[in-house]
Amino acid sequence: MSDETVHIKSYGCQMNKLDTALVTSALKKAGFSLTDSAKEADVVLINTCSVRDHAEQRVISHLGHLQHIKKSRPEMIVGVIGCMAQRLGVKLLEHNAVDIVCGPAQIPQIAKLVTKALQGKKETIAVTDKIRQKTDEDQAQALEDFESAYGIEDRYIPGQAYVRAMRGCDNFCTYCIVPFVRGPEVSRPPKAIIEQIKKLADAGVKQVTLLGQRVNAYKYKSGKKTWCLADLLRMASDVEGTEWIRFVTSYPSEEFFDEILQAMADLPKVCNYLHIPAQSGSDKILRAMNRHYTAGRYLAMLAKARAIVPDIAIAGDFIVGFPGETQADFEVTVDLVKKAQYKNCFIFKYSPRPGTNADKRLQDDIPLEVKKSRNIKLLAVQEKISEQLSAEFLDKEVTVLVEGLSKKPHLNDTEGGDKPQLIGRTATDYIVVFNGPLSLAGQFAKVKITKTSPLTLFGALI
Ligand code: SF4
Prior knowledge:
- By secondary structure, the protein is of the alpha/beta class.
- Helices cover 35% and strands 22% of the residues.
- The protein has four domains: 5-126, Rossmann fold (3-Layer(aba) Sandwich); 155-271, Transcription Regulator spoIIAA; 297-390, Transcription Regulator spoIIAA; 397-461, CATH 2.40.50.140.
- It has helices spanning 14-29, 53-72, 83-88, 110-118, 137-149, 178-182, 190-202, 229-237, 257-266, 283-288, 295-308, 327-340, 357-361, 368-391, and strands at 5-10, 33-34, 43-48, 77-82, 100-102, 125-126, 160-164, 166-167, 186-187, 207-211, 219-222, 225-228, 244-248, 273-275, 313-320, 344-349, 397-405, 421-425, 431-435, 444-452, 456-461.
- The structure holds iron/sulfur cluster.
């Protein structure tokens, strides 16, 4: 056992949040205690994201801050884990602050690496130069064991947990670094996933979110049988104690699409929410991105989703300023956003990621000013749509799963001000702010909506 303290800072997507929960749990079981203070910690780990340059710059700036702390506490150990660790590998050890580098495929080794570094040993790097090769059986088993042994108690939000359905990605969208840092697509065995969901339900988890870079492509074969995401949703629905089931992120592909929508329509526990990034409305840009659909096919998929699950809420992602994006390409993207009627959209300015096909083959030829103005315009178009869709909730009652205290209580004026301001989400992923007792965190509550804004509904606890 150890009495050293560890502080973990996490950047990036839900996959990273899940990895952070697993690492936290593994370190606790190895005898370390967790601390909120980086300044006082014996070990600081940063779980990194490489998807956008901005995310990496934040990590670099954080490392600069830690280097400063290390001047007065040189014994402090700093580790970089996650996608940036895999992308940069040994180069990260050249940074004065960094002692440990550990890629996503090596996280089962994290407690060992931390212990070694604390003992002053130098071999504290675990990344692979064969990230695109199929993991050997031992490594695959180590990842499975790590996944099922840890993370049950360590959750970001009370009553909720992420469960990995798939690792990696084989899609090679030209702008994306994920296939190069998270390796080939592997679907986890359904039995292992359901076992984990059962354990989480026993520990009081009401909502599980199945994760995969293209979670709708989940496919597991054993003997003559093949399981797809719809099968997994049906099996998860049978787990007693699990109340809501979500899955992210979906890739616009017709394979299994109808089956998944039908499962959503049939199974009350499966939340009527689909996050399905389009990235562009221009077929020319979609081809350049190596996305395997057209704008027309994408819109047909949304129409089908709404026909099978009438109250479905749909969210999208877009990249503006991709190489070669003309004003006409951008205008058809605006047009697609108007037709898609998303609940909300995540809109990013293109930034080349080293090692990706877009970076190697395409010139980043759209000026930053143009990217910014397209970003602002697309956000404004979406904001109007979100505003109209949110307004439909006025005076209605909704059920939310309560997450905890609202992060910006001073900004929101809701009724019942003597109680703390809480935040929750509907099954269709609408954020709801209301006043109520903090004991509701992790529980379901009914709220009457009294005011709406594009991204938030406000109401009173019933
Ligand atoms: S589907 Fe495309 S964008 Fe998503 S993780 Fe795979 S390569 Fe990246």
